[in-house]
Amino acid sequence: MANFLTRAWAFRWIKRLFLFVLIAFACLAAVRFYDAQRKEPLSLWHTYVPQEMNAREIDHATWEEYIANENRVFDEVKQNVTDKLPADERVPANRYFSGSPIYPGHFRTDWNRSYTLMPQGAPRGVAVMLHGMTDAPYSLLHIAQRYQQDGFAVVAVRLPGHGTVPAGLTEVTAEDWEAATRLAVREARRLVPAPAPLHIVGYSNGGALALQYSLEALDDASLPKADHLILLSPMIGITRFARFAGLAALPAILPAFAKAAWLDIVPEFNPFKYNSFPVNGARQSWRITSKIQREVADAARNGKLAALPPTLTFQSVIDFTVSTSAVVGSLYSQLPANGSSEASELVLFDINRTAQWSPLLRASMREALQRIAPAPPLRYRLTVLTNAGATSPRVVEESTAPNETTAKVEPTGLDYPPDVYSLSHVALPFPVTDSLYGRTPDPNDDFGIRLGAQSVRGETGALIAGAGLLTRLSWNPFYGYIAARIDSLASHGP
């Protein structure tokens, strides 16, 4: 009898727990249903999914075959999106309208596509460019051109799902991006065989892919190993919400709630970057970062990280997209010492401590550097670009060598602009003269819009997009510093 009562009691509690979970799920689903229905209507670029090559196909493809498929994909996007736009979407602010000044098909070069650059004369090395999430190969064009000027060949791959329509990110997988990375490195080594140096440059999600490839190469002798990794705002860690992002899209199973598959539905006025963002994109990014953190920890325990290429990372202490603390804790704190001459280095860009609106900054933002930067001695070089003094706009480089405790302070010849309080995740690879994102755009390239040169003032609710998309810093006042560091690596690295 006692056992029967115990089982009955346990059954009642299991039933109650099940009902609680069911009610909680129903409430969350209802909230998600409501939130999804508040979004803007879906357009053709949200519903038409281009048929890209998958990971298995990419791993067996040549660069020429990948480019041929890419050209087919762009042709199909034109046929199924551009040529079928309804009249109310044929507007100048739509990148998919062929009559728009921002339509990439009219540009001298459509930088949404993969490209290669060759230097004058025989290449002395080769560099692979891996762009970020929702971005296109354009985002690393300036750095690619630096490498070209330094005598390197360059391979810049368009990662699957990017450069075409945002719907391309609804079905893509992390494995597809990893396969495209392997393809780009194979092509790089075909163009410029070893022992000429190989550098892999990754921006944001591309930084995660660059690191993941190098970790994979530790265990796979068939993969060409890089001599240097250069990471800009690398996606080593992101918000925990992305782990459960797939659940947020469950209501999209029902056609009436298709908008639930999207975190953001925004007009597409940027010719080289999606503004809309599907849930699947966040989910795949989380998968990559989680995999990286596991593999870095495993490699550190097994003593394999000593073979990881020296890594130079540029990161803003304030970053709304990726976790700066994860760059320090999940990557750099795990790296072994690999000699002072070839030591890895983390470069942090501090906030502008002379900004006139500093009282408006959250305390956590003012204290970000102290919270993130570890105390020396360290096994890597830590460099901080910060104000020379509390009232000085001059920027100095405070660099602490591996195993040292005192920073060497050097002038940079740079000033923090008085109207900029910090860098941003998206700003690092773009100089002030970038034709699309720069403050003083280069007139030699006209992309129909100058997003970085806008000084947005006016009444709320008048713009087609939230002010945050237009006021987030899109150019880097310290790009010259990054370019000089890359020139130094290209000229004197292995």
Can you walk me through this structure?
The protein is an alpha/beta fold and 494 residues long. It has 4 domains: 1-38; 41-307, Alpha/Beta hydrolase fold, catalytic domain (Rossmann fold, 3-Layer(aba) Sandwich); 310-425 and 478-494, no CATH class; 432-475, no CATH class. It is built from 14 helices and 12 strands. The strands form 2 sheets. The protein has a 10-stranded mixed sheet, with helices on both faces. The chain has a two-stranded antiparallel sheet with strand order 6-7. It is globular, with a radius of gyration of 24 Å.
β-sheet strand percentage: 5-15%
Gyration radius, rounded: 24 Å
| End-to-end C-alpha gap | 78 Å
Order of helices and strands: HHHHEEHEHEHEHEEHEHEHHEEEHH
Q: How many E strands?
A: 12
List keywords for this structure.
34% helix, 494 residues, 10-stranded mixed sheet, globular, Rossmann fold, two-stranded antiparallel sheet, 4 domains, single chain, alpha/beta, 14 helices
Summarize the structure.
The protein has 494 residues and is α/β, with parallel strands linked by helices. It contains 14 helices and 12 strands. It has 4 domains: 1-38; 41-307, Rossmann fold; 310-425 and 478-494, no CATH class; 432-475, no CATH class.
